[in-house]
Write a structure and sequence with these properties.
Blueprint lengths: L1 H21 L29 E4 L3 E10 L5 E10 L5 E10 L2 E11 L9 E9 L7 E7 L2 E7 L12
Parallel strand pairs: 5-7
Antiparallel strand pairs: 1-5, 2-3, 3-6, 4-5, 7-8
Length: 164
Amino acid sequence: MLMKTIHGILFVGTAILLGACLKNIPEFDANDKPVSSIDTPAPTEAANPGDFEIGEAALIDSIDTVFLESFPLQIHAVVKGNFPDGCTTIQRYEVEREGNTFLIKIFTQRPVGAFCTEALVPFEYTVPLDVFGLPADTYIAKAYNAATEFTLSQDNSPQKSGGE
């Protein structure tokens, strides 16, 4: 008798739960159609420059260099730091070379009038350095107050074959 009571309670409880779930199922709409990637709208035009504050708001903590396994050698600077808030992102970068020093500028963008988290947001950004054709020497990669040195142990240009 106890087993029948337990089975009855379980049956009634399951029926109540299923009934509650069925109330939340949306009804079929004959106008609904499946969506395919062909139906995906084209990206909107780029935001107006006036929609963003452009500046150099990234707080740079460190910079390192990464040597890619290739010849001629390719070198990337890895810049690490923090954005001042949750809305700021990197818009672009610029690299200038003055002698043996690569000067890296990181430009940021932030939506005008946006309400953002007021907490530092860490980032890591890789910037390629144009080292093709440089002679063997020691160079500096600098992003604001952070800097690192790297050395090219040989000239970074393809060797001409003996037949040319």
